[in-house]
Amino acid sequence: MALLEYEALSISLPGTARPVLDGIDLTVRAGEVVALVGESGSGKSVTARAALGLFPAGATVGGRVRVEGTDLVGADAAELRTVRTGTASMIFQDPRAGINPVRRIGDFLTEPLRLVHRWSRERANARALELLAAVGLPDPVRHLRQFPHELSGGMLQRVMIAGALTVEPRLLLCDEPTTALDVSTQAEIMAVLGRLQRERDLGLLLITHDIDLAAAACDRIYVMYAGRIVETATTAELFAAPRHPYTAGLLGSTPPLTAPEGPPARLIPIPGAPMGLLDSAPGCAFAARCRFAAPGLCDQSPPPLELHGTALVACHRADELVDAQPNTLMREDS
Amino acid sequence: MTTPGAPEARTLLQVSGLRKTYRSGASELVAVDDLSFTLTAGGALGIVGESGSGKTTTARMLIGLERPDAGQILVQGEPLAATVRGKAARLARAKAVQIVFQDPYLSLDGRISIGATLDGVLRLHGHRDPAARAARSRELLAQVGLGERESASLPRKLSGGQRQRAAIARALAVEPAVLVLDEAVSALDVSVQAQVLNLLTDIRRSTGIGLVFVSHDLAVVRYVCDEALVLYRGRTMEHRPVADLLNSPGHPYTQLLLASVPRPGWDPDSISSRRRELAGPR
Amino acid sequence: MSAQIAGLTAAPGARLRALGGDWLQRLCLLFLVVFVLVAAFAPWLAPQDPTFGDLGAGLVGPGAGHLLGTDQGGHDTFSALLEGSRTSLVGPLAVVLFSTATGIAVGLFSAWRGGWTDTVLGRLLDVLFAFPALLVAILAVAVFGKGMTAPVIAMSIAYMPYTARLVRGLALQEQARPYVAAYQVQGHSGLFIAVRRLLPNIGPTVLAQSTVNFGYALLDLAALSFLGLGVQPPTPDWGAMINQSQDAVLQGQPLSAIVPAVAVVLVVVAFNVVGENLGDRLAGRDS
After folding, report:
1. Out of A235, A264, A268, whose CB is closest to B264?
2. Is there a contact between B37 and B241 (Cβ–Cβ < 8 Å)?
3. B170·C182 Cβ contact <8 A
4. Fewer CB in 10 Å around end: N or C, chain C?
5. Are residues A172 and A306 in the same domain?
6. In this protein, which residues make up the domain named ABC transporter (chain A) (predicted)?
């Protein structure tokens, strides 16, 4: 049984032209680090929240989201509470938005234990100290008495990680956990997350817009576009031979850090902008921005997610584009 | 736009000994300390740093929104006035340096269409004839890849990338010698960011404008700039051609920044220990 | 992305309230339109001359001759109600126009100049806040005499700090946005940016506040008239009508007092609903 399993999850909101999520299939096994990569409007955050049974207000939800076998679509309050206070935890982009600014760090960390799990204050405090040390904060005893504004963004994000771990979850959902932080702080937070994940054998789903961060931290990557998963593969495979033109476009849009002397090779951007919720397409949602879109094929029906090699790809032309000539997607003159 | 650049590399911007401190009560924070650099016509300088490095303060001093405590900013040999009195002085300063801000959602006036915004800038800067202004507006919009539809639109009808293009057009309308970009692509989606980066490269080539590109993103700086200046807590750590800097970073802080950029085979554990060595607890 | 977040955070109750608000908003708006029209055409609409007291027909009940009866002095209550709407419209309107105009000027100037200008103006406004509007108006009446002019001027001054403080806060918030910095960098003058660019962006919110203020000003002016310090008889006025009906109330004939009182309450509530709804709507559009 997978730790987290999405099965054809679809979410629609009234007043939008396309579903927010359209048939998401995604699996995270125990001890596995998986990334979900997408741009704004791709639905990656909605997907992550669904793993805690948080669905947009007024949404029509179809399909399944199972956390250790419990289906959260249509789950009752008791089942949701079990998942949220025991099995799964979530870390968000802005640590300051997730903590009450007038309460001490200690209260933030111990309250769930004392109020939900009925622990004694001493036991909860001991656990909080242990967790603050585990996330690498230098002075746990002092931090427990501090207020959120006394800590930097990076330190506060560690407190949030400690908070997510108080209930000893087996699944950690990280929604852009380092986007608001400096690059060197990002590295520290990812180091802490990586260490805790290995030590505790956590299943980790990293939601990010940064495909390089996903590659650096994760075993497997799902790429989302306009509410659908367009490609999933192991990190090595995805970078060596992206099979979906969107994945290739994302990689081609990122300037290389090290390159030979002289002016760098020109980037090959994806034209246009990500598809909003007020737009829809009868066929492949990416067709309007795709260099390889074929009229009469890509604009007819949405491509199914199919196995190509060891990757799953949702592209009508995946066969001819990649399997025939690996890496053509990355070159401009193809 | 007419090419202001002469054939040989003409100095556009000369910054020397720039310093800015902020006082709150008894404590004093040195935001920028002894910053010096020059920028030639058609050149692009990256100012790289993390939060608290002083890079945004530097940008604000270059556009005259902050007053340096010491040091000098020369634009085409003329000192950038610390205070401006009167319309002529205001317009002269506007022609020296323009800026594109980070947030495409807040940097345009929500009540005014893109076309009207450009028209307002052109009118302010002495373009009297409405027909000529309209033609120039179209030209500027075409230069940043926008058309009639975007010209007639209010900012909220446009995507983040389109708004940032409009902000670039608005800055170019003044025909400044130097364009400051303060994290101008970091709020954009990756696929859109690449479009704007290519646009900036094209503009630089076709106009000879000087770019000061303020960013935390080394890869993006590598793509846009010739030289990079690394700031850490207000001080210049390193200032070299950008390819050199990235291939053989000299200062430990530059090395840390470079190692911090995620990539396959990345080792965040070693980065955090190096960071602690460098900074100590902050 | 924003659409998703809005979907995630909007509680189902909010949607219901918005619907209810829409219905109530329309009713109140309609009522205010009627109020303004009545005030404009009162002399032609009033069936009788409300200043004419038919001493032989005091405290007549509602009927064919007098739609809402008469007061103790034999004045037709319905006609007085219609003509009294004029002072109830003109007085608060003057207060709101004057206090909003000066409040905008003071608030914008304070925010734009910043520094010690802002500090000094802030303290002055604090001092003005300390005086209740009604008290200032009573004081003005004591000095300048009864009538409409002195209370209106006094209340305009007393209401000004509310607008000034609102405008200052909004302007500071707006100034922090980079589009204002962009205008500065383009070379526009401070006056142009503050008045032509910043003000229109905060104007709608100020308008909403002024609409609410209208209701309060109406209430304060009616109170003054009731105390006999405002509009003087025989000019018809709702506050004065209540005042003149006190004896009738004691005699168990409260209709001539109830009618103007209900009118005051309805108009004040309508202005509040319209103003707050306007504010909510504009706040919703911004985000």
Report:
1. A235
2. no
3. yes
4. C
5. no
6. 4-251
Which superfamily is assigned to B40-52+86-243 in CATH? P-loop containing nucleotide triphosphate hydrolases (3.40.50.300)
Domain ranges of chain B: 40-52+86-243, 249-282
DSSP notation for A101-137: TTS-HHHHHHHIIIIIS---HHHHHHHHHHHHHHTT-
| Model pLDDT for residues A67-87, shown as the tens digit of each residue | 999 999 989 999 999 999 889
Do A49 and A142 share a structural domain? yes
B65/C179 touch (CB, cutoff 8 Å), yes or no: no
**What is the pLDDT tens value at each position of chain B, 282 positions in all?**
444 444 457 899 999 999 999 988 788 889 999 999 999 999 999 999 998 899 999 999 999 999 999 999 999 999 987 778 889 999 999 999 999 999 988 999 999 999 999 999 999 999 999 999 999 999 999 999 999 999 999 999 999 999 999 999 999 999 999 999 999 999 999 889 999 999 999 999 999 999 999 999 999 999 999 999 999 999 999 999 999 999 899 999 999 999 999 887 788 888 878 877 776 544
The CATH number covering residue A19 comes to 3.40.50.300
* Euclidean distance between CA atoms B74 and A300, whole angstroms: 60
Domain count, chain C: 1
Q: Return d(Cα C85, Cα B219) in angstroms, integer.
A: 70
Residue C51 DSSP symbol: T
Q: Using an 8 Å Cβ cutoff, are C205 and C282 in contact? A: yes
Cβ contacts (< 8 Å) between B63 and chain C: which residues? 181, 185
Residues A214 and A155 in one domain: yes
The structural domain count of chain A equals 2
Q: Tell me if A262 is assigned to some domain.
A: no
Q: Is the peptide bond between C50 and the residue preceding it cis, with omega within 30 degrees of 0?
A: no
Closest CB to A267 among B159, B194, B262: B194
Helix B190-207 and helix A245-253, axial crossing angle in degrees, nearest 10: 50
Give pLDDT tens digits for C32-57.
999 999 989 888 888 878 777 777 76
| Nearest of C237, C261, C234 to residue C86 by alpha carbon | C237
Chains near A with 3+ CB pairs less than 8 A apart are B, C
**Count of alpha carbons within 13 angstroms of residue C189, beta-carbon side:** 8
Within an 8 Å CB–CB cutoff, is residue C181 touching chain B? yes
Interface check A140 vs B, CB under 8 A:
no
Q: Are B101 and C178 inside 8 Å of each other by CB?
A: yes
This model of the complex carries an ipTM of: 0.89
The pTM is what?
A: 0.86
Q: Which residue among B194, B216, B282 places its CB closest to the CB of A253?
A: B194
B48: helix, strand or coil: strand
Asked if C202 and C194 count as a contact pair (C-beta separation under 8 A), the reply is no
**Domain limits for position C164:** 23-52+60-286
Residue A169 has phi, psi (to 5 degrees) of -75, 165
User: Distances from the Cα of A141 to the Cαs of A45, A129, A137, A149, B281, in angstroms?
Assistant: 34, 7, 10, 17, 16
Give CA–CA dist C229/C243, Å, rounded: 11
Closest Cβ–Cβ partner in B91, B101, B109 for C187: B91
- What distance in Å separates the CA atoms of residue C136 and residue C155, rounded to the nearest whole number? 7
Residue written as token pair 């290389």: A256
What is the distance between the alpha carbons of residues A135 and C98, in angstroms, rounded to a whole number?
60
Q: What is the pLDDT of residues A271-327, one digit of tens each?
A: 988 988 888 889 999 999 998 998 888 988 889 999 988 899 999 998 887 654 545
Instruction: Pick the residue from chain A with its C-alpha nearest to C10.
Output: A57
Contact C9 A57 (CB under 8 A): yes
Number of Cβ within a 10 Å radius of residue C13? 8
List of chains touching B (3+ CB pairs within 8 A): A, C
- Assign residue C243 the CATH number of its domain: 1.10.3720.10
